[in-house]
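Task card 7
Instruction: Convert sequence to structure tokens.
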Amino acid sequence: MHKIFITFSVFLILFVSCKDGNNEYGYVRLSFEHYWDYQDNQENTPIQIDGTTQYINEAGNILTFDRLEYFISNLRISGSSTLNVQHPNIHYITNDTNYSVMLLTYQIPVGSYNEIRFTFGLDANNNKSNLFANSPEKDMDWPVNMGGGYHYMKIDGKWKNADDVTNTPFNLHLGALEEITRIDTIYGIRVTTQVRDSIIRIDTIIEKFHKHFFVSVPRSFTVESHTVTTVDPIIMDVKQWMERPFRWDFNVMGGAIMSRRYALDSLAQNGRTAFR
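Output:
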């Protein structure tokens, strides 16, 4: 496998000073890599986010990619009942190698671990507007009139069919969508929209649909005292976002889905099995 393409690395670093002088903590290095149609036990090439390399999904759409970025949060590594370490920070991940390394200070107890878990996106407690002051995180903001907060993911590119000449832009954007339901004053029927009015009427019902989800990947590794342990990379298979359980056909779904709750539901369902 081509291993030099590391999209995101997390170093979980111990506080080495212990009151009793025992060497109880070690270091963990964790990375994320992105592929198209990843196959176990084969040589795989990282997905190219260059606007020119073409990929074909199950629906036969020909795709190129311009952007891949997302958030994970509530990162946890787990072993036995006494070995569960959670890092509460929010991590921005992208394919851009200029934004590939983050250094975090944290205590990782010596021992054996077998699972890595995280939230894809931001949970309801963290997904608040103006949480980030600096780029690139603040540039992931979700429109305020659609609920505010932040995008969980942006996958941007262009698509066409085999017999098409023109490339059509697409934006696979995932986030928490706010829907507003009110009674139409003329016809007396319920009207639902995804864009908030400047004035909220008293008969308006506002619901927010959060699309974050939880990911668990098996990883067996041992943390040793004062030693850096490199964990096998967590793999995102970008193709899986368009496959199961919902086959994604841009002829049907179109290129923009942010205001369509059921399209967001389908994308989030597919994403649950995009990591391994």
